[in-house]
Amino acid sequence: MITIYHHPACSKSREALQLLEESGQPFQVRLYLEHPLSVEELTTLQNKLHLPAISMVRVKEPLYKTLCADRHPDEKELLTIISRYPALMERAIVEKDDQAVIARPPDNIYSILQAGYST
User: Any catalytic annotation for residue 68?
Assistant: First the structure.
């Protein structure tokens, strides 16, 4: 099952959602601002992304700059920050099975849509 971690106010997240809808594949939407991910869920998602935790953070957000001014949090601390402040999570993220992508640009989700799909 495909899952999109979605923020409806974000245009890129809406574009990714539209691509999923157009694909015809079943998916579920998790509104992560309403239902934040735990540190464990974020760790699993990070492992599927194959990226450092900082890639999952909206580092230009004023809140991030306030929380992490003049320091460089380690991986676990970054995931804890995202869990406590879900608005800092990069959006949208789409996952399927053991893969995940950050949908910036939204076209990144095509690799997820094609995974395990045969014609």
Answer: no
3 state SS of 19: helix
For residue 116, pLDDT beyond 70? no
Distance between CA 65 and CA 111 in Å, rounded? 32
pLDDT of amino acid 115: 75
* C-alpha of 2 from chain center: 12
pLDDT-based confidence at residue 39 (cuts at 50, 70, 90): very high
Domain boundaries, the chain: 2-114
Which numeric CATH code is attached to 2-114?
3.40.30.10
Pair 101, 49: CB distance under 8 Å? yes
Residue at 20: amino acid letter = L
Active-site residue, selected from the candidate residues 2, 4, 10, 39:
10
> Does the structure show a pLDDT above 80 at 117?
no
State the virtual CA torsion across 14, 17, 21, 27 in degrees, nearest 10: -150
